[in-house]
Amino acid sequence: MRLAVHKFASCDGCQLSILDCEDELLAVAGAVDIAYFPEASRRMEPGPYDVSLVEGSITTAHDAERIQQIRRESKVVVTIGACATAGGIQALRNYADVEQFTRAVYAKPEFISTLETSTPIAAHIPVDYELRGCPVDKRQLLDVLVASLHGRRPAIPNESVCAECKRAGHVCVIVAHGTPCLGPVTHSGCGGLCPGYHRGCFGCFGPSSLARMEPMTEVWRSLGADDKTIDRALSTFHVASEANAAERARLEADDE
């Protein structure tokens, strides 16, 4: 299997998660040919590739063209992490004046070539599988690679963090401590990490497909959170996701 790893606008954390799989990757080294992975090697062979892992969001016109080429060269495209699957925290630009940002940050803003939006890979090409997370969970990543080797579909769960907390035996922080938590509306994958340490879920894996954001907002309000706190919680890793964006818009409309 020829594997490629591509980077777009991101912090590189998901690529580091791949490197963190070093022991597991050694076990399949004979079957996986890492043909393109600039983060880890100077070896950069051209496609076609059997599997392309893509990290990062599309934020420039050049990247919008490059992702089309990657799709043409790849049998399977897997997006990894919040940036690739939802636009990432940099999608805060979608709700602001990008030119104002560049003027404030760069001494020569005229040399900055960027789009006004940060968008997920799936907004530009068909994607075969999406792995959520900030960063991506290496167990899910390994399952995708092993599934590709054996010609089967990977087992990507479609449930909330609450299901993971139940399996792990974690006490519900909402019920037991009155702690605001996004677990009921967040896609699984982390193993219920934050609630396991008696902290509320931050929504690193994004809204689940069955997320009902308005009832979750009412729960947070009942726990003493104001709308500004709720909006801030929805304005992080998956700010541009459909569910988060819709709930933020609803909250803003209620305040007008």
Describe this structure as you would to a colleague.
The chain has 256 residues and is an alpha/beta fold. The protein folds into 2 domains: 2-150, NADH:ubiquinone oxidoreductase-like, 20kDa subunit (Rossmann fold); 161-255, no CATH class. Helices cover 39% and strands 11% of the residues. The chain is built from 12 helices and 5 strands. The chain has helices spanning 13-19, 22-27, 61-73, 82-86, 98-105, 138-150, 161-168, 173-177, 193-196, 213-222, 227-233, 242-255; strands at residues 2-7, 33-36, 49-55, 74-80, 129-131. Strands 2-1-3-4-5 form a 5-stranded parallel sheet. Strand 3, helix 3 (61-73) and strand 4 form a beta-alpha-beta unit. The longest helix is centred in the last third of the chain and has 14 residues, at 242-255. The radius of gyration is 19 Å and the shape is globular. The model has no long low-confidence stretch (mean pLDDT 92).
Write down how many β-strands occur, each being a DSSP E stretch of 2 or more residues: 5
Quote the distance from N terminus to C terminus. 55 Å
Apparent shape: globular
CATH superfamily of the largest domain: NADH:ubiquinone oxidoreductase-like, 20kDa subunit
CATH class of the largest domain: Alpha Beta
Low-confidence parts lasting 5 or more residues at pLDDT below 50?
A: none
Task: Give the number of helices.
Answer: 12
**CATH fold-level label of the largest domain:** Rossmann fold
Based on secondary structure, the structural category is alpha/beta
